[in-house]
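Final report, closing paragraph on structural work. Over the funding period we assembled a curated collection of sequence-structure pairs, and we close with a single example.
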Amino acid sequence: MTEQQAKEAGFVVAVTNGGVQALFPDHIMMNGTNVQISSTNITIKPITPMFSRAFYINGKKFTSHLKQLVTQEKGESDQELLLRYFKQQHIDMEDPASLILDETANKLIVHATVDDLDKIENVVAKEFQ
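Its predicted structure, as stored:
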């Protein structure tokens, strides 16, 4: 593989003294860590384990109380409102975290870090029970 072919295939090419010294994929997994490689530096980002937890709620009562705690913006869904409320409670829910507010099934299903799940559990128990 030539240097140009490697670059076109998404590899980072290290060249010294006019010759190709090493080829690296631009993203590799190493011991559960996402390693992003560029021609000038290497960035190592640990992968945070994510878990799911279901919270059983009274759907209509839950959203009604949520709307008393936080003013819903025009066009904002109940789920978006809940995400904004969690952010105000210092629960960031950064990607790839997610939640599903299912008022019909009376469930709040959250996929997040253990720390965020514990914070959400405390907020739900304190504010919505």
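The first helix runs from residue 3 to 8. The longest strand covers residues 19-25. We thank the funder for supporting this effort.
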